[in-house]
Amino acid sequence: MIQTVTRPIAPATAMSATLVVARRALLKFVRTPALVGMGIVQSALFLFSFRYVFGGAIHAGASTYVAYLVPGYVATIVLFTGGGIAVAVADDRVEGFTDRLLSLPIPRYSIVMGRALADFATNAWAIVATAAFGFLFGFRLGGSIPDGLAALGLCLVFGLVFTVVFIVIGLLAPNAQAAQGMSMIAFVLAFMSSTYVPAGTMPGWLQPFAQNQPATVTINAVRALFEGGPAFHDLWQAALWCAGIFAVFLAISMNLYRKATA
Amino acid sequence: MTTVPLIEARDLTIRFGKVKALDDLDLTAPAGKVLAILGPNGAGKTTFVRAVSTLLRPTGGTLQVLGKDVSREPVAVRRDIGLAGQSAAVEPTMTGRENLEMTARLFGHPRDGARRAASIVIERLSLGDVADRRCSTYSGGQRRRLDLGASLVGAPRLLLLDEPTTGLDPISRREVWDSVRDLVAAGTDVLLTTHYLDEANELADHVIVIDHGHTVAAGTLSDLKASSGRDVIEVAVNDPSQLEAVGHILERVTSNPPRLDHNGRRASAPTAGGAKDLAIVIRTLDDTSVMVDEIGVRRPTLDEVFLTLTNAYVQNGSSR
């Protein structure tokens, strides 16, 4: 006599569905050594190049270039690694995994939340690793340790917000390659910001954007926290941007999952 | 026994922009049977399965699964179904067991229940040898069977299989068929789509042929053969170079275009005249130098029925 599977008594709760979806995405990441390793190598190489190759030619005001560079670089690391998120989301859709999830009796938003939770964790890993390279390349805290931790916390928040943006890109892209390409748009935010050079050195027509866009205000806040300077003004601007982007893109991503295009 | 049909579609329409993938489709599938949706590529089979699995919302008409409306009660429908799609949705970096436990958790099983469900499914689908290996090492057939298993861990009432053996080699196809038959024996209702007639023949009790988003025919396989297939006169010859000549004779007698199979050295044509036509063909062949190996009237094959049904539809449709 073959044993038969019993029907579950109740559908999965949103919490457990979110955790299961997140666990799978994390396992996929951790078990693909190329993903774990390459992200770190790439971010270390970039940081190394800016610190030691370009850095000598850049004057960043009063502070040393390494003190100027590292906060912005750590804060915006998600703009470089986010392409991987978009690719994973597009792959899931093309390969039928998203269909499987959508055919299961779980809340739609747990699919987005699970994905975002996993990417929040992988991004946290990238932030910590990149910050470690920053210290290795000569960065030092100017402020208190709690301020430094607050700065890292803001980096994590910024990472989470843009995770949802990259999920939307992955859902809009017809396939993984397109998702990778479309993710390049994030470079606009990464480079036309105060990450590498002070926005004030850019031409006048570019300044309104470069000074006020979400990456710049977040970087300014992170930099102020790391240096121990006053961060309040930049912080609330960053908070506003982050809350706005998160709300809008979360709504878009949920709507896209609901439509379930394949 | 319940009298609620497995699936009931009334004027079901699904539109993508201007294209109607399903066009006023009507269909009733009895419960307790294996139902095959048969149709050529692009007929609307996958769209139909996606509608049944609540992945697509009907643009018009109604669709009920086990008495529940997919538009009004999608969550209730999702509890009743298990979907195994065309692309095997298993996670390659996880083991087979991990994949099954994950899906079981999403169906609502608690941790230990998920473990138990996964073990049972592994045994039932004979995946024990590979269950603890990562799925990236699986063969195509093993992946497909695991995907089948993932749709089973929630003990769905209705299993949806979208082209379950497309792209598999003959041995893997047999394996998947055997698994499906076991499930049916254990009491799961199955809806499968296929464009392989032998697959419908192997697995299904009830067949619905769709083409261009419409139902073209429905019934048991033998019903279909009886209703839409005309008898076929078939002649096997010794010398393939004589096939053309035989084809001409068949065409003259039956007034139907013959099919010539050069490898099998056979010519055939549908006939309305049965034995009378056969007698004429035999007499005519007698007056030629054709060496006949075999000659006779037979019932049409499924392939022939299928071609007749779908071609008839194309011709009707274009003459409108």
Molecular structure report:
The complex is a heterodimer of chains A (262) and B (320). Chain A has one domain (18-25, 33-53, 61-260). Chain A is built from 12 helices and no strands. Chain A has helices spanning 14-30, 33-54, 65-75, 77-94, 97-102, 108-136, 145-172, 176-183, 186-191, 207-212, 214-227, 232-259. In chain A, helix 6 (108-136) packs across helix 12 (232-259). In chain B, 39% of the residues lie in helices and 26% in strands. Chain B has 11 helices and 14 strands. Chain B has helices at 45-52, 74-80, 96-107, 111-124, 140-150, 170-185, 197-203, 221-228, 243-254, 275-286, 302-319; strands at 7-16, 19-29, 34-38, 60-65, 68-69, 81-84, 158-162, 189-194, 206-211, 214-219, 232-237, 259-261, 266-270, 292-298. Chain B has a 6-stranded mixed beta sheet, with helices on both faces. The two termini of chain B are 43 Å apart. Classes of the chains: A mainly alpha (262), B alpha/beta (320). At the A-B interface, helix 1 and helix 5 of A face helix 2, strand 6, helix 3 and helix 4 of B.
User: What count of domains describes the coordinates of chain B?
Assistant: 2
**Rg over C-alpha atoms of chain A, rounded to the nearest angstrom:** 20 Å
Whole-Å distance between the termini of chain B?
43 Å
| Helical/strand content category of chain A | mainly alpha
Oligomer: heterodimer
Characteristics:
heterodimer; A: 262 residues; mainly alpha; 74% helix; elongated; B: 320 residues; alpha/beta; Rossmann fold; Alpha-Beta Plaits; six-stranded mixed sheet; four-stranded antiparallel sheet; 14 strands; 39% helix; 26% strand; disordered C terminus
